[in-house]
Automatic annotation (TrEMBL):
Source organism phylogeny: Bacteria, Bacillati, Actinomycetota, Actinomycetes, Kitasatosporales
Keyword DNA-binding: yes
Record bears the keyword Transcription regulation: no
Protein name: TetR family transcriptional regulator
GO molecular function, one term: DNA-binding transcription factor activity
Database matches in PROSITE patterns: HTH_TETR_2
InterPro entries reported for this sequence: Homeodomain-like_sf, HTH-type_TetR-like_transc_reg, HTH_TetR
Portion annotated as DNA-binding: 27-46
PANTHER family reported in the protein's UniProt record: HTH-TYPE TRANSCRIPTIONAL REGULATOR RUTR, POSSIBLE TRANSCRIPTIONAL REGULATORY PROTEIN (PROBABLY TETR-FAMILY)
Domain spans labelled HTH tetR-type: 4-64
Keyword annotations from UniProtKB, A to Z: DNA-binding
Gene3D superfamilies linked: Tetracycline Repressor, domain 2
Length: 189
């Protein structure tokens, strides 16, 4: 029972600390102290920092994934292919924006941590599937990876904070990047 309690305390502490703007700088020692456990306990439960970040992201991802797999259209199954693709891209943008400190903590772990974790593989596969339906005859695998890369939290944060772009402009630009017919032109304010 103590193990389950410790794991939950670590996840709660890590979630709070990784949601801070400087999440990439959060140490395993800080997480252990906030959870009231030793640093070794954190490593025993999660193995490494990347696994801990992914464990914190898991319930957040599960909520969006559930909506994609079984929610109402256009985000859920069925409906117009263009609307389904646009809805997914917009939902992924909103997810990345809302969870950007935590996602940034994962991004700094390197491309392997960002692109090959279970959630990212699912999103890339879902983007590929929806692109194949909405834009057949194009290189949907490349396009899915390009759109997913543009959804990185560091990219979005840079565009908002350094380039002064609005979230709506970025959201519309991402839908346009996906190549939907009738998408707003790139660079629209």
């Amino acid at each position: 029972m103590d193990a389950a309690r410790n794991r939950q305390a670590i996840l709660i502490a890590a979630s709070a600390l990784f949601d801070r703007p400087n999440s990439a700088e959060v140490s395993m020692q800080e997480i252990a102290a906030a959870a009231g456990v030793g640093k070794g306990t954190v490593f025993r439960h999660f193995g490494d920092r990347t696994s801990l970040i992914q464990a914190v992201l898991l319930p957040r991802v599960a909520t969006l994934r559930s909506a994609v797999e079984s929610g109402p259209p256009p985000l859920g199954p069925g409906g117009n292919p263009d609307a389904a693709l646009a809805s997914l891209v917009e939902a992924l943008f909103d997810f990345s924006w809302t969870n950007r400190p935590l996602i940034r903590a994962l991004e700094v772990r390197g491309p392997h941590a960002y692109y090959t974790n279970e959630a990212s593989r699912f999103w890339i596969a879902e983007l590929t599937r929806r692109l194949a339906t909405a834009a057949p005859g194009t290189d949907v695998e490349f396009r899915a990876h390009a759109v997913f890369t543009a959804l990185r939290a560091d990219v979005i944060e840079y565009l908002v904070e350094r380039c002064g772009m609005t979230q709506n402009r970025i959201r519309e630009g991402l839908v346009g990047l996906s190549g939907l017919p009738g998408s707003p032109p790139a660079g629209r304010p």
